[in-house]
Amino acid sequence: MTYCLGIRVKKGLVAIADTRITSGNETTSAKKISIHKQGKNNIFLMTSGLRSVRDKAVTYFEEVLENESIHFDKMYKAVNAFGEQLRRVAEEDKASLAASGLSFNLFTIVGGQLESDKDHKLYLLYPEGNWIEIGEATPFTIIGNSGYGKPILNRTLTYDSPLNFAIKCGFLSFDSTRVSANDVGYPIDMVIYHKDTGFMHETRFDEKDTGHLASMWGSKLRDVIHEIPDDWIDDLVTRVEKQGEDNRVRQIQVQQQQQHH
Questions:
Q1: Quick one: which of 207, 203, 212 has its CA closest to 31?
Q2: CB neighbours of 37 closer than 8 A, spacing ≥ 6?
């Protein structure tokens, strides 16, 4: 399984991808995020699905970008181009994969800003090559193992959140997934796009780099749970204890009546 997260806030984009690859009992590492140059700008891709489909589609897409006669001035055009290459791979490999018992499966997150885009963009692309744009109402999307890391983003992240805050939320979302799923883990790759400068930067974190933050998060979470008032629980426990005592008394009375008969 995979954990790939794309975030779009007012000041930029954040992309986070784990690198763990699990096949049967074997665990290896491989990049799931890549940066591709288009003119003076960059776009990033993150994928979740069959590795062979990913590698072939990305290779075909890179050939398109290297063609000097083809130029994309808007993000949706680049996303369409990747979708076309994904459908090309489907035409070539889908039948043989199905014959081997494998489904054609590749989800992709694409982000960036090209010269004619008024704003930075984030897209989720499906295995069929169609896509949706990630808007302001829910400013993130996850592919792969999404269940464990989504709640913290739903509770904390908005389009107006500062970029630094989005990075922290993204990391904690990954960490929540990592501690709950053994097929997601370090190292993690992170790409940050800053709208004001137009600069896209990629970096990698090992557990030794951010492990102390995960420990701090766990400790703070326990502290907050202790700070939640207990009065509603006390009332609940009192009612349960009373009901239990009443039930015990009734059982004793029934037993005594049965003994007299």
A1: 203
A2: 65
Q: Where are the alpha helices (DSSP H) in 28-162?
A: 51-66, 75-99, 150-156
- The residue count of the chain comes to 261
Residue with tokens 């990049």: 31
User: If you average pLDDT over every residue of the chain, what do you get?
Assistant: 92
**How many Cα atoms are found within 13 Å in the side-chain-facing hemisphere of 180?**
15
d(CA 176, CA 96): 37
Q: Is 105 helix (H, G, I), strand (E, B) or coil?
A: coil
Task: Classify burial at 210, counting beta carbons within 10 Å of its beta carbon; exposed 0-12, middle 13-18, buried 19 or more.
Answer: middle
Q: What is the pLDDT of residues 208-235, one digit of tens each?
A: 999 999 999 999 999 999 998 888 888 8
Q: Which residues pair with 237 in a beta bridge?
A: none
Rounded Cα gap, residues 188 and 7, in angstroms: 15
Q: How far apart are CA 172 and CA 138, in angstroms?
A: 17
Note whether 170 and 23 are within 8 A (CB): no
Structure tokens at 187: 């190292």
Residues whose CB is less than 8 angstroms from the CB of residue 117 and which lie 6 or more positions away in sequence, other chains included = 74, 75
Helix or strand (DSSP H, E) at 28: strand 26-29
Hey, what are 245's tokens?
């005592």
Coil, helix or strand for 35?
strand
DSSP H or E run through 40: none
Q: What is the token pair recorded at 235? A: 């009332």
Distance separating alpha carbons of residues 103 and 85, to the nearest angstrom: 17
Q: Which of 11-20, 120-129, 246-255 is the least confident region?
A: 246-255
